[in-house]
Amino acid sequence: MPTRPDAVAALPVAPGVYRFRDAGGGVLYIGRAGELRRRVSSYWGDLRDRRHLRRMVPRVARIEALVCDSAHEAAWAERNLLERGLPPWNRVVGGAEVPVCIRLDACPEAPLFGLAPARRPAPGVRLFGPYLGATKVQLAVSGLGRLYPIGHAGPARTAAERELARVRGGRVTPVAQLADAVAAVLDREPTAVATALAALTARRDAAAEGQAYEAAARLQQEIEALAWVVAPQRVTVPGADAARDVTAWSDGVLVRLRFRGGRLRAWEQETCSRATPDTGAPDGWAPFLRRNADLAARLATLPVT
């Protein structure tokens, strides 16, 4: 096995996107990871069954990484970057998951709550997202539907739907109140998110205690899916400014992130002898930018070859 480069140890145990460059500065490969250090380290492990990677690894001269706040954010970063250009050793354009949105229609007579394509919603309808991974997003919708059964509420429902809503508490809770509760979670309001996750966790634990293990497993999937949906997201933000460049500097390295239409479209790094003020950063981005500038500067001192 090839010797693992020192740059690998400098990577954090955190989600993010990594990029391999060759000796000429060309991009070889872009990938994402739930844990950057472990994922990148695997390229210098046993690759007997990965012939194409065995050919690529000796060409890697530099490792770069962009640390994200969640695996979902890392997935979007990878997808956005690959859509703009496919490096020679990447095989899939735009990542593997399908982007979907969540539709919330609080019509008092027949409210709707479920998956929807990413298109302009009808008046009075809210569209959340986009999110990656239709299966995960459907599980998140299912979990929220357990807590706030808006999809089964309203007088226009069938008798069976009304009975299900009654069991879940939807008959006695106004549609507007259910819609507000769902929207607060999907808007990532901290208290609403914590309350929803705690409620699902309590139901999972009760199911496990009652030896309803399949139900407990399903609830665990819904908890994980909801955490995926409400995770921090900077690199794909619909309705954001049409064009924005965000920069950060650390110890001779400038990191520039270019956003177009609310999506990360370019991730650039270059040497820069003087500190430049951070520009274009929305509120709350300072820690994100600082840690990535510091990591870029550290990795720049640790070439692979």
Question: What does this 3D model show about the protein?
Answer:
The protein is of the alpha+beta class and 305 residues long. It has two domains: 6-69 and 237-300, GIY-YIG endonuclease; 99-230, no CATH class. It contains ten helices and nine strands. It has helices at residues 6-10, 36-41, 51-56, 71-84, 134-147, 159-168, 175-186, 190-209, 213-230, 286-300, and strands at 16-21, 27-33, 62-67, 99-105, 112-116, 125-132, 243-250, 253-260, 263-271. The strands form three sheets. A three-stranded antiparallel sheet has the order 2-1-3. It has a three-stranded antiparallel sheet with strand order 5-4-6. Strand 8 (253-260) and strand 9 form a beta hairpin. The longest helix is centred in the middle third of the chain and has 20 residues, at 190-209. The chain is elongated and about 70 Å long. The relative contact order is 0.13.
- What fraction strand? 15-25%
Total DSSP E strands: 9
Q: Calculate the mean pLDDT score and round it.
A: 90
- The N- and C-terminal alpha carbons lie at a distance of 16 Å
| Poorly predicted runs of 5 or more residues | none
The H/E string reads HEEHHEHEEEHHHHHEEEH
Instruction: Give the helix level as a range of percent.
Output: 25-40%
What structural class results from the helix and strand content?
A: alpha+beta
